[in-house]
C-alpha cells in the first residue's frame, strides 16, 4: 500500500505519515511532566524527588510503546492526538502526586479513614492499563467500521453499564460507582459514553436519510417519522432517566449533548439544535425542582459564598474554595507545590484538580491546559471531517463532541460558570475509569484518523486489463 | 455531512473560549478581590507562614516571640515571655481567635503586610531571605512593669504609669491576668483554654488599666482642687475655705456629706483639706463651681473621651448632673468614673507643671532589618492648669505624702506627690471599696514618672488609709523602678 503505482488520481504522492512529528512531540510531552515533577519536589522538599527517574522512565516507556504501535499499525494517524493525551496524562500524574504530598490532605485522610494511601501510584497503574487498552484498540480494531456490526450490542452493553451502579451504594450523593472487591471502584458511565456513541453512530448512519427526508413539517420543525426516531429516542431517554435517578448529572448532560450533536450532524437539520435546547431547558428545570442534590448545587453556583455563613461543614463550600483558589493563583500562579488548593478537601485531586492548575500554574497554565484540551477536540473534529464514511464521521464527531462537553461541564463547574455536576477532567483528574476510558477514546479516534488519512489503495490489477486492447484498424 | 461538522467545530471552540473567558475573569479581573476574601483561609495561612515581628520594651527586652506550631497549616504561632505580665500591653494574637490591642493595631507591621514594608518584602523576594515581620518598640519600662505586676500580686487591680514630660506609658498592669500563649494555637486545647478564660468570673482578659472605669474616689480631689485654683475660687492653698462640717448637699432637705473620721476639716485650707482628704471641703468646692465648670476642668484632664494610645482606652466619665450629684462627683463618687490611665494622666499633668502630654506606648515601628519606619513624637494634649497653679497643687500633693494619708508613698531622698483614695462601691456602699493611689516622683529635671494604682475588693478598712496602705506601696515601687533606671 505504501508504494503507489501511479494509476489513480489520488495519492499520486504518498501522504506524509507524520510519525516523526509525533515522536518529536512525544519527547516534549514526556519531558514537560518530568520537569514539572522535579519542580514540585524542589518546591516542597528542596530536593529532586526520588521517584523522578522511575516516573520519567515509566511515562516515557508507555509513550514509546504507544508510539511504536501507532507507527506500525496506524501509520497515517493524526500525529497530535497521542502526544496531547500523553502530556495531559503526565501533567495529571504530577498534580496528583503533588496533592499526595499535601500534609493537609494526609492529615485529613488519616482523620477520616485512619490511614493515608497516595493516589499517584494507582493513577500510574491505571495509566498503564489505559495505554494497554489504547494499544489493544489499535491492534484489535483494524478498521473502525467493524464497530458498525455491534450497533445493537453496544446499546445493550451501554444500558447495562448504566444500570449497574444502581445496585451499589451512593458515594458523595451520586450513584455512579460500582465497587469490585480487591480492584476498587469503577465508574461505568465513562465507558458507556464511548459505547453509546458507537450505538448512535451505527443507528444514525443507517437511518439518517429516513430521518432527514421522510419527515413531516410541524410548527416549522421537520419531525421524522416515529418508526425512525422512536428507538433512538427511547434508548436516549432511558439512559437519561437512569442517570437522573443515579443523580449523575454531568453524565446525563453529556449524553444529552452527544445525542443532539450526532442527530444534528446525521440529519443536517438545524431544527434539532432548537429542539435539543428546548428539551434541555425543560429537563434542567424539571430536575432542578425535584432533586435536592441538584438544588443545593444550583444554589452554590448562584452564590458560592452564601453557604459559608449557614453551613460550616458541608461540601457546598467547595465552589467558593475553588474560586478563591483560582483567584489566589492570579496571572502566573504560585508555582507548583506552593499553593493551597488542597484546602478544598476530599475532591481536590478529582473533580477539583483544575483548581490546583489554576492556583499553582496561574492563568497562564490554565490557558495552556484549556488549549491542550481544545486541540484534542480540534483534532477529533478534523478526523471527522476527513473521514470518508458516515459511520466514521459520526463516531469521530460523537467522541470528540463528548470530550469537549465533558471538559466544558467539569471546568465550567469548577470555575463556577455553570452548576457543578461532578465529572472528571479527562486524563488529568484522579480516577481509574476515566483515564482508561479516555485512552480507549483516543485509540478509536486514532484508528479513524488513520483510515481517513490513509492514501487510497492502489487499484488491484484488473484481471481483464490485458483483454481490453485498442483495436487497431 | 461536513457543514454541520464545521458548525459543531465552531460550537466546541465556543465552549473552550467561554472557559477561557471565565478563567480570565476569575484569575485576572477578580484575582485581588478573591485573594483577600474574608473566607479565604490563605490570608490566615500567609499571616502565620513566617515569623511575626516582635514587641519590644523601651529598654530593649523582647516580650514576644514566635514558635513553630505543629499539627496545623499555620507554620508559626505567637508566644509571649511573661505573658500574664505583659498581656495588658500586647493583647493577644491567636491563630483562631484573631488578635487584640497592640497585636491587632500594629498587625500590618508585625505580620509584614504593611505597605511601609513593601520595599523590604520586594528586597527579600530577590535575596531569597525569609519573610519576616517588623518590630514594634514600645515605651514600656520592664522594671516598672515588673514592679507593678508583682506589686498587684494576687489582688485584683491595675496599675498605669506615665512619663509626665512626654506622655510615654511606662507600665500597664492588670490582675488577674492571662497568658495569651495558652490559646495562641489552633488546637482543641487552645479553644478550651480560651473558653475557660472567657468564662472566668474574675475576667482575666479584661484590661483593667485601660478598659475598666472605677469611681476615682478621693484621688479625684486633685482635679477638684485644680478646678478651684483655675477658677480663682480661692487665691491660695493656705487660705481657709468657708466650709462647714457636715456639709449639707445643695438642693437636698438635710442630706449631710461627712468626712471619714474626726478630722480637722471645718474651714480647712486647701492644703490641709487635701492632707486629710476632706469630703466636706471638696464637695462644697464642686458645688460652688457648678457642674459646668467642673466638667470643663475634668475634660481638660482627658475625661469624657476615648483615648487612643494607640490602643483604645475607655472614656472616663465626668457626668452632666444635678447639683447634689455634682457635689458628690467632685469627691470622685456618684457617676464619676475613671480608668487607671486617666488618673495617672491627672497626676502627670500636675507633675508636668500643668501640661498634659498625650499618652502613647509605641515609640517606634521598625522594619525587620531594624530600620525605623516611624517614630512617635510626644504631643501636648491640653493644659488643664497653669504652671503656677500646678506648682501650688504639687505642694499640696507632696504634703499629702509627707504629712498626710500618703505616707506609704515616701521614697527616701526623692520628692513624691500623691493622693490616696477609697471609692465607695455598690448600693449603699455595701461592696468592698476600691483602694486608689495616684502619685508622681520628682527629680531636679522635672518628673519622670506618674502612677495610678487601683485595687478592687480591698477587704480592709473603708477609710482613706486603705488607698495609702494597699495601693501606695505598689506606686512607690513602680516609681522607684523608674528612678533607679534613670541613675
UniProtKB/TrEMBL annotation, chain A:
Instruction: Region Disordered: list its residue ranges.
Output: 453-473
Q: Which InterPro entries match?
A: FtsW/RodA
Topology versus the membrane: Multi-pass membrane protein
Q: TM segments?
A: 23-40, 52-69, 81-99, 123-141, 153-171, 191-206, 227-245, 251-267, 272-290, 361-381, 393-415, 427-446
Q: Main localization of the protein?
A: membrane
**Domain of life per record:** Bacteria
GO function terms (MF aspect): lipid-linked peptidoglycan transporter activity
Q: Name one Pfam family in it.
A: FTSW_RODA_SPOVE
Keywords assigned by UniProt?
Cell shape, Membrane, Transmembrane, Transmembrane helix
Q: Which GO terms describe its cellular component?
A: cell division site; plasma membrane
Instruction: Please give a single GO biological process term from the UniProt record.
Output: cell division
Compartments it resides in: Membrane
Q: What is this protein called?
A: Putative FtsW-like protein
Q: Which organism is it from?
A: Streptomyces hundungensis
Gene (UniProt): rodA_2
UniProtKB/TrEMBL annotation, chain B:
Q: Which residues form the Penicillin-binding protein transpeptidase domain?
A: 157-480
Q: Which PANTHER family match?
A: PENICILLIN-BINDING PROTEIN 4B (PTHR30627:SF24), PEPTIDOGLYCAN D,D-TRANSPEPTIDASE (PTHR30627)
Pfam families xrefs? PBP_dimer_2, Transpeptidase
**GO CC annotations, alphabetized:** plasma membrane
**In its UniProt entry, what is this protein called?**
Penicillin-binding protein A
> What sequence ranges are listed for the domain Penicillin binding protein A dimerisation?
52-136
The cross-references to InterPro entries, in alphabetical order and at most eight, read:
Beta-lactam/transpept, Beta-lactam/transpept-like, PBPA_dimer, PCN-bd_Tpept
Example GO biological process: cell wall organization
Which taxonomic lineage does the organism of this UniProt entry have?
A: Bacteria, Bacillati, Actinomycetota, Actinomycetes, Kitasatosporales
Q: Which organism is it from?
A: Streptomyces hundungensis
Amino acid at each position: 500500500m505504501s508504494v503507489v503505482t501511479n494509476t489513480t488520481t489520488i495519492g499520486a504522492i504518498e501522504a506524509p505519515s507524520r510519525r516523526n512529528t509525533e515522536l518529536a512531540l512525544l519527547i516534549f510531552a514526556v519531558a514537560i511532566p518530568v520537569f514539572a515533577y522535579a519542580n514540585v519536589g524542589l518546591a516542597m522538599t528542596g530536593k529532586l524527588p526520588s521517584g523522578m527517574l522511575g516516573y520519567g522512565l515509566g511515562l516515557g516507556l508507555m509513550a514509546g510503546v504507544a508510539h511504536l504501535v501507532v507507527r506500525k499499525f496506524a501509520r497515517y494517524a493524526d500525529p497530535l492526538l497521542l502526544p496531547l493525551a500523553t502530556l495531559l496524562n503526565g501533567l495529571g500524574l504530577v498534580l496528583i502526586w503533588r496533592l499526595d504530598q499535601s500534609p493537609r490532605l494526609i492529615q485529613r485522610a488519616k482523620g477520616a479513614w485512619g490511614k493515608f494511601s497516595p493516589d499517584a501510584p494507582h493513577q500510574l497503574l491505571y495509566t498503564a492499563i489505559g495505554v494497554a487498552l489504547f494499544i489493544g484498540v489499535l491492534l484489535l480494531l483494524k478498521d473502525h467500521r467493524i464497530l458498525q456490526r455491534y450497533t445493537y450490542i453496544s446499546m445493550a452493553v451501554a444500558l447495562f453499564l448504566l444500570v449497574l451502579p444502581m445496585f451499589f451504594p451512593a458515594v458523595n450523593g451520586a450513584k455512579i460507582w460500582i465497587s469490585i472487591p480487591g480492584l476498587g471502584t469503577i465508574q461505568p458511565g465513562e465507558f458507556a459514553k464511548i459505547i453509546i456513541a458507537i450505538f448512535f453512530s451505527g443507528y444514525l448512519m443507517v437511518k439518517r436519510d429516513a430521518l432527514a427526508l421522510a419527515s413531516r413539517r410541524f410548527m416549522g420543525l421537520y419531525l421524522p417519522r416515529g418508526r425512525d426516531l422512536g428507538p433512538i429516542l427511547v434508548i436516549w431517554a432511558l439512559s437519561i432517566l437512569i442517570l437522573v435517578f443515579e443523580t449523575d448529572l454531568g453524565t446525563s448532560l453529556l449524553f444529552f449533548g452527544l445525542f443532539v450533536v450526532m442527530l444534528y450532524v446525521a440529519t443536517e437539520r438545524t431544527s434539532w439544535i432548537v429542539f435539543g435546547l428546548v428539551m434541555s431547558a425543560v429537563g434542567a428545570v424539571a430536575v432542578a425542582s425535584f432533586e435536592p442534590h441538584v438544588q443545593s448545587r444550583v444554589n452554590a453556583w448562584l452564590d458560592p459564598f452564601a453557604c459559608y455563613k449557614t453551613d460550616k461543614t458541608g461540601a457546598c463550600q467547595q465552589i467558593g474554595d475553588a474560586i478563591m483558589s483560582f483567584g489566589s493563583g492570579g496571572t502566573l500562579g504560585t508555582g507548583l507545590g506552593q499553593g493551597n488548593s488542597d484546602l478544598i478537601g476530599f475532591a481536590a485531586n478529582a473533580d477539583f484538580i483544575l483548581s490546583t492548575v489554576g492556583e499553582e500554574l496561574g492563568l497562564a497554565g490554565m490557558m495552556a491546559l484549556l488549549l491542550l484540551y481544545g486541540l484534542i477536540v480540534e483534532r477529533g473534529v478534523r478526523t471527522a471531517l476527513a473521514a470518508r464514511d458516515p459511520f466514521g464521521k459520526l463516531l469521530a464527531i460523537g467522541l470528540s463532541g463528548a470530550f469537549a462537553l465533558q471538559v466544558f461541564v467539569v471546568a465550567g463547574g469548577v470555575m463556577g460558570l455553570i452548576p457543578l455536576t461532578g465529572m472528571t477532567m479527562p486524563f488529568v483528574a484522579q480516577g481509574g475509569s476515566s483515564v482508561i476510558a479516555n485512552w480507549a477514546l483516543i485509540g478509536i479516534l486514532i484508528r479513524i484518523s488513520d483510515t481517513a488519512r490513509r492514501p487510497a489503495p492502489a487499484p488491484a490489477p484488473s484481471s481483464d486489463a490485458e483483454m481490453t486492447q485498442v483495436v487497431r484498424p | 455531512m461536513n457543514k454541520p461538522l464545521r458548525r459543531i467545530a465552531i460550537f466546541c471552540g465556543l465552549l473552550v473560549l467561554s472557559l477561557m473567558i471565565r478563567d480570565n475573569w476569575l484569575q485576572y479581573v477578580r484575582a485581588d478581590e478573591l485573594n483577600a476574601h474574608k473566607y479565604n483561609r490563605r490570608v490566615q495561612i500567609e499571616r502565620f507562614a513566617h515569623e511575626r515581628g516582635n514587641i519590644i520594651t523601651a529598654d530593649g527586652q523582647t516580650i514576644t516571640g514566635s514558635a513553630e506550631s505543629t499539627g496545623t497549616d499555620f507554620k508559626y504561632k505567637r508566644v509571649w515571655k511573661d505573658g500574664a505580665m505583659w498581656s495588658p500591653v500586647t493583647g493577644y494574637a491567636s491563630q483562631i481567635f484573631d488578635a487584640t490591642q497592640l497585636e491587632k493595631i500594629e498587625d500590618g507591621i508585625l505580620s509584614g503586610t504593611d505597605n511601609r514594608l513593601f520595599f523590604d518584602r520586594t528586597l527579600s523576594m530577590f535575596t531569597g531571605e525569609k519573610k519576616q515581620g517588623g518590630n514594634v518598640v514600645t515605651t514600656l519600662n520592664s522594671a516598672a512593669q515588673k514592679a507593678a505586676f508583682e506589686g498587684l500580686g494576687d489582688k485584683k487591680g491595675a496599675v498605669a504609669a506615665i512619663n509626665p514630660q512626654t506622655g510615654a506609658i511606662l507600665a500597664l498592669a492588670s490582675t488577674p491576668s492571662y497568658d495569651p500563649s495558652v490559646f495562641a494555637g489552633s488546637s482543641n486545647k487552645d479553644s478550651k483554654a480560651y473558653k475557660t478564660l472567657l468564662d472566668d468570673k474574675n475576667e482575666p482578659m479584661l484590661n483593667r488599666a485601660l478598659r475598666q472605669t472605677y469611681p476615682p474616689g478621693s484621688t479625684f480631689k486633685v482635679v477638684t482642687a485644680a478646678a478651684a485654683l483655675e477658677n480663682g475660687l480661692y487665691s491660695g492653698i493656705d487660705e481657709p475655705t468657708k466650709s462647714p462640717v457636715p456639709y449639707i448637699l445643695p438642693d437636698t432637705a438635710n442630706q449631710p456629706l461627712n468626712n471619714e473620721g474626726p478630722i480637722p476639716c471645718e474651714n480647712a485650707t486647701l492644703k490641709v483639706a487635701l492632707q486629710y482628704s476632706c469630703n466636706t471641703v471638696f464637695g462644697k468646692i464642686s458645688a460652688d463651681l457648678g457642674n459646668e465648670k467642673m466638667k470643663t476642668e475634668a475634660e481638660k484632664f482627658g475625661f469624657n473621651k476615648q483615648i487612643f494610645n494607640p490602643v483604645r482606652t475607655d472614656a472616663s466619665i465626668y457626668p452632666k448632673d444635678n447639683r447634689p450629684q455634682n457635689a458628690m462627683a467632685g469627691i470622685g463618687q456618684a457617676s464619676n468614673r475613671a480608668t487607671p490611665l486617666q488618673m495617672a494622666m491627672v497626676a502627670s499633668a500636675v507633675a508636668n507643671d500643668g501640661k498634659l502630654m498625650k499618652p502613647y506606648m509605641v515609640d517606634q515601628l521598625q522594619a525587620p532589618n531594624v530600620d525605623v519606619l516611624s517614630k512617635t513624637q510626644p504631643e501636648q494634649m491640653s493644659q488643664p492648669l497653669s504652671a503656677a497653679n500646678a506648682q501650688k497643687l504639687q505642694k499640696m500633693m507632696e504634703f499629702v505624702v509627707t504629712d498626710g494619708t500618703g505616707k506609704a508613698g515616701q521614697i527616701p531622698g526623692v520628692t513624691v506627690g500623691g493622693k490616696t483614695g477609697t471609692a465607695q462601691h455598690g448600693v449603699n456602699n455595701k461592696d468592698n471599696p476600691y483602694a486608689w493611689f495616684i502619685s508622681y516622683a520628682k527629680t531636679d529635671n522635672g518628673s519622670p514618672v506618674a502612677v495610678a494604682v487601683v485595687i478592687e475588693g480591698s477587704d480592709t478598712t473603708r477609710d482613706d488609709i486603705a488607698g495609702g496602705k494597699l495601693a501606695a506601696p505598689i506606686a512607690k515601687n513602680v516609681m522607684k523602678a523608674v528612678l533607679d533606671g534613670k541613675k
